[in-house]
Design goal:
Strand order of the largest sheet of chain C: 6-7-8-3-9-10-12-11
CATH superfamily of chain A: MetI-like
CATH class of one domain in chain C: Alpha Beta
Largest sheet of chain A: none
Radius of gyration of chain A: 23 Å
Order of helices and strands of chain C: EEEHEEHEHHHHEHEHEEHHEE
CATH superfamily of one domain in chain C: P-loop containing nucleotide triphosphate hydrolases
Helix content of chain C: 25-40%
CATH topology of chain A: MetI-like fold
Shape of chain C: globular
Number of domains of chain A: 1
Number of strands of chain C: 12
Radius of gyration of chain C: 21 Å
Helix content of chain A: over 70%
Largest sheet of chain C: 8 strands, mixed
Largest interface: B-C, 43 and 49 residues
Structural class of chain C: alpha/beta
Shape of chain A: elongated
Oligomer: heterotrimer
Distance between the termini of chain C: 34 Å
Order of helices and strands of chain A: HHHHHHHHHHHH
Chains: A mainly alpha (292), B alpha/beta (309), C alpha/beta (325)
Distance between the termini of chain A: 15 Å
Chain lengths: 292, 309, 325
């Protein structure tokens, strides 16, 4: 019976505890480093890139890696390394707003569904299920056909199709929490619904959703790459990992480094975010944390 | 002086399940009333219905002379500072991501008392329940059961309520902590002149804290009287069984145990006649009739063949 | 000489945690004889759960056995093969847990569950069903044949706990471990279960290791008692010695605290002030020293569990007063 023993450790901030917990796990640390590098290179992309990623330089076209160009150049003479770094920025520009937007909306609707009256719950669930029944890629094709390819379109498609996932998880969590004694205690003190949801429910739900976010970001990066590969994503000449992959695929015999330059970051980013998500899941659960 | 709480014919149903079938009792100013019952008796529903946390389809709940049953949450909010609740699970009733300081000052924030010095209030409340002031920065999971229980008491006392509704305030395995909490409650009651309703299944506890008590069986009071009178001479056979089903910490105590037959019947199919008769050790033919709550010398019993009378 | 069934000898168990080793059990020593009911009393944090998991070797990955032996019929369970342990569990040693609402698989009928656990028996299905019905009858479930086809949720908490006892006794174990089996039940059902356990113990002749914080139940049911505090045995002996002549201040105060002990209405009830010490950061000397009202200089040393009379042991220097230090 270890649970009766009081932990006299000083209370650190929640975020510090979580980061320390993730760093203690070897895979979590790898994930943290990878994600850190990706975010860093995306934020400071403009200072990192050695060449203008969209500037054509026909004399230097299709150069192999061991030259002045770290990862060679493509069929238009653009520097692959610069395009990979800029592509990372594009990937995050799609993934982060889409996922955080979906989480914010899904969380709000999910908590309302879980805590509100039955009819509202039924209505929101019907809405979520309807959206979920759309195949993402088909839906994307339809939207692109209507409004044309752009970064905003991809963000919108991803956000719309991800809302139900977050909504459902938030609703289930809210349902399990709503009858717990601490929520009853708040009601007995006269706390308003807004206060119950934002001060008492939210902090207990957000951890679970944070794990989902970390796990979803690579899916979105892959989806953006896939759409760009099909020519439905961001407009050329904007560099994107999917577009790199597409160029490389067409010229795989002449310039194999393009496929590697487009493919490897997707694999590494996916692994990094997944490791981070796995590790986060163990750390945010206080029941698991206590045994450490 | 009028009673602080007056409950009359309170009824609660969930679908077809009639959890409370008309419960009436009252609590005087400064009095502690214990509602005793086993699982399924509806004792938790009683206080939740009083506090507006469980539905109450019929009856009346008067607090300080004012009818509060069915009142809207908006109208009830100002009254909530006079009625405080304590819950069964000491740790589970504390919002897990809040510090103790934020937990015990929560009532001030909810009631919009922004001018209060919350740090000073937190310090005062922790002192009141004998917890060191550095506990303010801890989280609920860092507390032992007994400490969490005292945080619950501190929070209940924050707004100087007139009435406390406490659900199993001594639940939890440790007897050494149980006494501490009972002493604290008795002390606070004397100092602050609180009125209390305590819900419990533990008769050992009732004896030391309550002035009057009611025994609940299947959502109905079967006996009510002063704690002394009931312990001295229980009138309902069920009360008698409860009192005898109390193993004593003495291997040589020869108990005259009155065995209770079977298990509590289902609330969906209530027995006819006296609802206790299938399990009653002294039931007779007369018990096919429905007994009513009869009062003699301030001691009420719902039994056609009462004991000690 | 009575035959020893379970011997716990100088058992020490640690949990490795981020804060250092948590010394959950320290030098635990006691025996359970054949056909005897031994009660283990202790408040939260005393190490009851760790003890049970050590006996059954159902241990968490961060558990470290530091010393001692757990001998069952003379064989050390801590070094026995995994296979041997599995054969013992559920056959020679059975367990009843605290929460009757969670011990049964909710989607399988009670009858099927009771047939399934007879997988070691060579009897055919009809015979196994008959055995199951007989056991349900033995624990006082009315109309047992018909109820075999019902599912756990169709039984009340008290009935489920009796079914759990029936299932535990089905293999006719030599040792039944009962971990707070009545704590989740109402008082009237609690006494029903205790009466039932007494009868069953008489009929089956198994030994029972009965773990409870409820002194009244222990006093009524057990032959001998082991009192634990913060991971150590502070006192053990016959039930009469323990309740009538406690030799350790913790035992004495614990009995005094029990509200069932106090018949007159009291305004101030006795308590044991203070908290159980942090087992990851053990204080020096006697583990109870900080909360003890009789502590003196000698308590700066850890008192050994010493045999005081036939059948009573205590770990307290007060019992050594006449000896030269």
């Amino acid at each position: 019976m270890t649970d009766a023993i009081v932990n006299p450790a000083k209370s650190k901030s929640e975020l510090a505890i979580i980061i320390a917990g993730v760093a203690r796990d070897p895979l979590g640390l790898i994930g943290l480093i990878i994600v850190g590098v990706i975010v860093f290179s995306a934020v400071f992309a403009a200072w990192i890139v050695p060449y203008d990623p969209i500037a054509m330089n026909i004399p230097d076209r299709m150069q192999g890696p061991p030259t002045a160009h770290l990862l060679g150049t493509d069929q238009l003479g653009r520097d692959t390394f610069s395009r990979v770094i800029m592509g990372g920025q594009v990937a995050l520009k799609v993934a982060l707003p889409a996922i955080f937007g979906a989480m914010a909306i899904g969380l709000t609707l999910g908590m309302i569904a879980g805590y509100g009256p039955k009819w509202l719950d039924n209505f929101l669930m019907l809405l979520f299920d309807t959206i979920r029944s759309f195949p993402t890629v088909m839906f994307a094709l339809a939207v692109v056909a209507l409004v044309g390819p752009s970064l905003q379109t991809v963000v919108f498609v991803v956000m719309a199709t991800s809302i139900p996932t977050y909504g459902r998880v938030a609703r289930t969590q809210t349902l399990t929490l709503r009858n717990s004694e601490f929520i009853l205690a708040e009601r007995a003190m006269g706390a308003s619904i807004v206060r119950i949801l934002s001060v008492h429910m939210l902090p207990n739900i957000i951890g679970v959703l944070a794990v989902l976010v970390a796990m979803d970001i690579p899916t979105v990066i892959a989806l953006e790459a896939g759409l760009s590969f099909l020519g439905l994503g961001v407009k050329p000449p904007t560099p994107s990992w999917g577009a790199l992959l597409k160029d490389g695929y067409a010229l795989i015999r002449q310039t194999p480094w393009l496929v590697v330059g487009g493919g490897l970051p997707i694999v590494i980013a996916t692994l990094g975010f997944t490791f981070l998500g796995e590790s986060l899941r163990d750390v945010v659960d206080p029941k698991l944390r206590k045994n450490r | 002086m009028s009673p602080i709480l007056e409950v009359k014919d309170l009824e609660t149903s969930y679908g077809h399940v009639n959890v409370l079938a008309g419960v009436s009792f009252s609590v005087e100013q400064g009095e502690t009333y214990a509602m005793v019952g086993e699982s399924g008796s509806g004792k938790t529903t009683v206080i939740r219905a009083i506090a507006g946390l469980a539905p109450a389809q019929a009856g009346s709940v008067k607090f300080d002379g004012q009818e509060i049953r069915g009142m809207s949450e908006k109208n009830l909010r100002p009254l909530r500072k006079d009625i405080a609740m304590m819950f069964q699970d000491p740790t589970g009733s504390l919002s897990p991501r809040l510090t103790i300081r934020n937990l015990i000052t929560e009532p001030y924030k909810i009631q919009g008392m922004k001018d209060r010095d919350l740090d000073a209030e937190a310090k005062r409340l922790l002192e009141l329940v004998n917890l060191p002031s550095h506990f303010a920065n801890r989280y609920p999971y860092q507390l032992s059961g007994g400490q969490a229980r005292r945080v619950g008491v501190a929070r209940a006392l924050a707004l100087e309520p007139k009435l406390i509704l406490a659900d199993e305030p001594t639940a939890g395995p440790d007897v050494s902590v149980q006494g501490e909490l009972l002493n604290l409650l008795n002390d606070l009651r004397e100092r602050l002149g609180l009125s209390m309703v305590i819900i419990t299944h533990n008769l050992n506890v009732v004896r030391h804290v309550s002035d009057r008590m009611g025994i609940l069986y299947l959502g109905r009071l079967v006996e009510e009287g002063t704690t002394e009178a009931i312990f001295e001479a229980p009138r309902h056979p069920y009360t008698n069984c409860l009192l005898s089903a109390n193993p004593e910490p003495d291997p040589d105590a020869r108990l005259e145990r009155i065995a209770l037959k079977g298990e509590p019947p289902s609330l969906i199919k209530r027995p006819s006649g006296c609802e206790f008769r299938d399990r009653c050790p002294v039931a007779s033919d007369i018990c096919t009739q429905v007994p009513s709550l009869e009062v003699t010398d301030g001691h009420a019993v719902r039994c056609l063949t009462p004991l000690h009378l | 000489m009575t035959e020893k069934l379970l011997e716990i000898d100088d058992l020490s168990v640690d949990y490795e945690t981020a804060r250092g080793d948590l010394k959950a059990l320290r030098n635990i020593t006691f025996d359970v004889n054949k056909s005897e009911i031994v009660g283990i009393v202790g408040e939260s944090g005393c190490g009851k759960s760790t003890l049970i998991s050590a006996i059954l070797r159902l241990i968490a990955p961060n558990t470290r056995f530091r010393s001692g032996e757990v001998r069952f019929k003379g064989e050390d369970l801590l070094t026995a093969s995994e296979r041997k342990i599995r054969d013992l569990r559920g056959d020679d040693i059975s367990i009843v847990f605290q929460d009757p609402m969670q011990t049964h698989n909710p989607v399988i009928s009670i009858g099927q569950q009771m047939v399934d656990i007879q997988h070691r028996s060579k009897a055919n299905k009809a015979e196994k069903r008959a055995t199951a019905a007989k056991m349900l009858g033995a624990v006082g479930i009315p109309d047992p044949e018909a109820r075999l086809s019902q599912f756990p949720h169709e039984f009340s908490g008290g009935m489920r706990q009796r079914i759990a006892i029936a299932m535990a006794l089905m293999s006719e174990p030599d040792l039944l471990i009962a971990d707070e089996p009545t704590t989740a039940l109402d008082a009237t059902l609690e006494v029903q279960i205790i009466e039932r356990l007494k009868d069953l113990q008489r009929d089956f002749g198994c030994a029972i290791l009965f773990i409870s914080h409820h002194l009244g139940v222990i006093a009524e049911l057990c032959d001998r008692v082991v009192v634990m505090y913060a991971g150590a045995v502070v006192e053990s002996g016959t039930v009469r010695e323990i309740f009538h002549h406690p030799k350790h201040p913790y035992t004495r105060r614990l009995i005094e605290c029990d509200p069932g002990h106090i018949k007159e209405r009291a305004r101030v009830l006795p308590t044991i002030p203070g908290e159980v010490p942090d087992l990851a950061n053990l204080p020096t000397g006697c583990i109870f020293r900080d909360r003890c009202d009789q502590a003196f200089e000698r308590c700066a040393e850890v008192p050994p569990l010493t045999r005081l009379s036939d059948g009573q042991n205590a770990a307290c220097w007060l019992n050594h007063a006449e000896e030269p230090a």
